[in-house]
Amino acid sequence: MTREQTGPTSPAVAVHGLSYRFGTEPVLDRLDLDIPQGALYALLGANGAGKTTLLQLLAGARPLQQGTVRLFGAERHRLSPMQRQQITYLAEGQELPSWMRLSQLEAFCAPLYPTWDHALALTLRARFDLDPRQVIGKMSRGQRMKAALLCALAPKPRLLIMDEPFTGMDAAVKDDLVRGLLDAASVEGATVLLCSHDIAEIEPLADWVGILDRGRMRVSMPIDELRARYKRIDMVTEASLRMPEPIPANWVSVERAGLRLSVLMEQTGNARELPAPFRGAARIDVRDASLKELYIALAGKAHSQSGTEVGA
Amino acid sequence: MTTIGQVWHLVKKDATQLRWWLLGYLVLSVMATLTATQIVENEWGGSTTIFAPSLWLLGGVIAALLVQADAPVNPRAFWASQPIPTRAVLMAKLSLSVVLLLMPPLLGELLALRYFGITGTEFGSLMLHSVWLYSAWLLIAMLVASLTKRFAGFVATVIGVPVAFTIVAITLDDWSGQLDMAWVPRALLQLLATAGSAVLLTLVYRKRRAGRPMLGAAAVMFAAGMLAVTRPAARAERPTLDAANAPSIELDVVSFDAERLRRNRELFVQLTAKGMRAPYRYALLTDSTAATWTDGANTPLWAPLFMNDVPKLFGGPGAGSELGTVAVMLPRSSAAKPRTGTVTSFRIFGAVETLTAERVLQMEPTGRAERRDGDVRVRFAGGEADGAGVSLQMLTVYRAGVHVRDLFALRRRYTAQLVWPDRADTVELAMGNVSDEDRMMVLPGASVHRVSIRQNSDGPSRDSLPAPLAEASLELIRWTPVARRPIVVTRTVP
C-alpha cells in the first residue's frame, strides 16, 4: 500500500502556540516546534518540563486544549484514518492488554495498520527473543517494552513517537531497542521523535535535538549545528587571572577548579574568541561539547535566565 | 480499516477478553428467567433472591470492565497508542453492552411477562420500563467506570454513592417524619439518568479527562438514577387512640399447671377473652409476667412471645373466645435457687390493644397464579398511588431488583387474605416476607415480581380453598391500634 503523502515538504511535526494545563497548572506554554521529515529528533528536558504531555498530545493520546499541531501538514485532530495509521506511539509505562498473548497482540494490531509488515514483525520478534505464546501480563518489564516496540515498528510508520523507551532497561535490552530504532529510522525515511533521560544512549542516534524547559522549547536544531555552535574550551590559567566582569554573554557555563578553567562558549558572530587575558592561557583545549554537557549547561542557563530564549 | 471495521475489531477483542464473564452473565440470565417463570424451582424456597441481584450486579461489573479495558481517561491505555478514534471505542463498548448485557435480561423479561399472561398495553409499558431500568443502570455503570481508571475506583464509587444516598435519605426521613417524595418528578429523573448519562459518557470519551465538573455531573446522574428507582414508604395516617369508644374485652387464664412450671421451668398458658367483637382485633402486650409461690415469693417469668414489645395479634372475625396459648418459663436464675412448694398464682401485667382494619390494599391477581408445595403464588400488579397510604414492597423480586413503580418499604404489620368476592369467603394468609421497620436498599431491576405467601396455620388447608385462586383477589390489611387499656390477669391455682 502506498503511503499517503500529505505535503511532502511539510515538516513531519509542526507545533504552534501549543498550551496545555492540568487544572490550573500550566504544563506547556505557547510552545512552537518544527521537526523535519526523516529526522531522528531527541527531545530533552528535566522532569516536569512537559515532555510526556507534549508527546501524548502529538500522538493523540490527549485532546488539544490550545494551539495547533500539524503532522505532515495535516491538523492532528483532522487526520484521515490512513494518516493516523502512519503514526505510532510508544511510551514508558504504557499499558498493554495483559490478558493477551504476544501473537494475539500482533493479530489485534496488524489490521489497524495497512502497512503492517508481518515479515518485519517476525524479524523483530526473533531479534527481541520474544515468545509469541507468552502472555503479556507474565512478561518482564523489558519484554513488555520490546513487545510494544515491535508493535510500534512493524507498521513501518512515517512518524514514530517514543517516550522514555529505555527507562529501567538493562544494557542488553537497551542495545536491542536501539538497534530496532535504527532500523526504523532507516526505513523509508521515517521520522523518529524520541524523548529520553538517557542522553548518552540517544546521542549517537539523534540528528536533531530539542530542549524543553518548563513548557517551552529552549533549543531546537540539528545536533551538528548545535555542536558547531557550542564549544568546550578547557585551559590552565595563571593564579592571578581574574574572571571577567561581567561574564561574557556567550559563555553558557563556566567551571573553575584551582588553575583549571572550563568554558562552554556559544560561538556566534564576532564572539568566537576568548577575551584577551585568556588567550595566553596554557594548555588550551577546544573540543565539541557533548550532548550531555550541552543539555546540562543550556537547561541550567535557561533556568537562570527564566523566560529568555536560548539558541534557535 | 473503516470505523465500522474498527468497532467490530474492538468488539471481538472485548468479547474475547470478557468471555467467561459474559458466559456467566448469560447463564445467570437464563437461570433468572427460568426461576421467574418457575420452570426451575430454586433451592432457596422459591424466593429467587439470588439470581436477580446477581444478574444486576454482574451486569454492572461487566459494563465497568468493558469500559476500563480501554479506559478513555487513561492516556497510557493501550488503545490510546493505536490509530483508533474515540468514537469507535465508544461505539464498540455500547454495541457490546446492548447485544450481550442488555438484550439477554430483556429477553428474559419478555418471556417472564408472556408466561404470566401479560399482554397489550401493560406488556408494552412493563417492557419499556425494563428497557429503561437496564439501560439506565448499564449507562450509569459505564459512566462511573469511564471516569475511574481502575476497577477499585469503580467499586468504591458504586458502593459509596448508594451508601451516602441512603444515609441522606434516612436522615431526611427521620427529620421530616412524614416525608412525602411524591413531588419528585420521576419521569424527569429517569430521563436525566439515562439521557444525561449517555451524553456525559460521550463527553468523557470526547474530552478524555475526568475533571471535577465531569465528576460532579456524573454524581448527579447517579443520584438521579437512584432517586428514580427509589420510593419512600407511603404512610397511612396515624390512628387516634380513643379508649373510651373502643370495645373492651376481658382476658382470662383458663389453663395453668403450676407443678409443671416448677419441674420443667416451662409451661403453656391458655388465654381466653370475652367480649371480642368483629371487625375489631385485639392484641395483648405485656411488660411482665410473674408467678407467686407458696412461700409468698414472686418470680418473674419469661414469655418469649412478648419480647421486644411486639404485640401479639389475637382474635378477629370467627376466632371465637380463645385467644391462644402463651409459653412462659422460669428464668435461668430461678433454676439456680429453686423455690419451695408450688406456684399459687400467675399474673400478666400489660395492656390490651384494640385494632381496626385500615387502608385495605386490594390487589387483583392477574395472569397466572399457582399453588405449589403448599405455597400460594400470586403474581399481582398494582399498588397504591404515591402518598395515598400504605404501600407494598415485594422483597422477593425475580430479576434485577427493583420494580420502580410500586416498590416500597413495608413498614407496618400486615395480614393478608385471599378473598373470593362471589362466595363471600376468605382465606387468611401469613406473609412471611413483609418487613416491619426494615429499610430496604432498593435495587434496580425488572417488572415481574413474586411474593411468596404462606397460608396461615390457623386458616383452612390449601386443599380446602373454596375455589380456584384465579377467582380470588388479595387484600393486604393493616391493623391499626385504636385503643389501649391496661390489664392485669391473675390466675390462682385452685
Account of the protein in words:
The complex is a heterodimer of chains A (312) and B (494). Chain A is an alpha/beta fold and 312 residues long. Helix content of chain A is 29%, strand content 29%. Chain A contains 10 helices and 14 strands. A 6-stranded mixed beta sheet of chain A has the order 6-7-8-3-9-10, sandwiched between helices. A 4-stranded antiparallel beta sheet of chain A has the order 2-1-4-5, covered by helices on one side. Chain A starts with 12 loop residues before the first strand and ends in an 8-residue tail after the last helix. Chain B has 494 residues and is an alpha+beta fold. Chain B has 10 helices and 13 strands. In chain B, the strands form 2 sheets. In chain B, strands 3, 4, 5, 7, 8, 9, 10, 11, 12 and 13 form a 10-stranded antiparallel beta sheet that branches. In chain B, strands 1-2-6 form a 3-stranded antiparallel beta sheet. In chain B, strand 8 and strand 9 form a beta hairpin. Residues 41-48, 174-180, 231-239, 307-311, 365-413 and 431-462 of chain B have low confidence and may be disordered. The chains are: A alpha/beta (312), B alpha+beta (494).
- Rg over C-alpha atoms of chain A, rounded to the nearest angstrom: 22 Å
Percent of residues in beta strands of chain A: 25-35%
| Shape type of chain A | elongated
- Assembly form of the protein: heterodimer
The separation of the N and C termini of chain A measures 38 Å
Class from helix and strand fractions of chain A:
alpha/beta
The parts of chain B where pLDDT drops under 50 for at least 5 residues are 41-48, 174-180, 231-239, 307-311, 365-413, 431-462
Largest sheet of chain B: 10 strands, antiparallel
Portion in helices of chain A: 25-40%
What level of helicity do the residues of chain B show? 25-40%
* Percent range for β-strand residues of chain B: 15-25%
Largest interface: A-B, 30 and 26 residues
**Mean pLDDT value of chain A:** 81
Structural class of chain B: alpha+beta
Which stretches of chain A of 5+ consecutive residues score pLDDT under 50? 1-6, 305-312
Largest sheet of chain A: 6 strands, mixed
Radius of gyration of chain B: 29 Å
List the total number of helices of chain A. Answer: 10
Strand order of the largest sheet of chain A: 6-7-8-3-9-10
What is the helix/strand order of chain B? HHHHHHHHEHEEEEEHEEEEEEE
User: What is the count of β-strands of chain B?
Assistant: 13
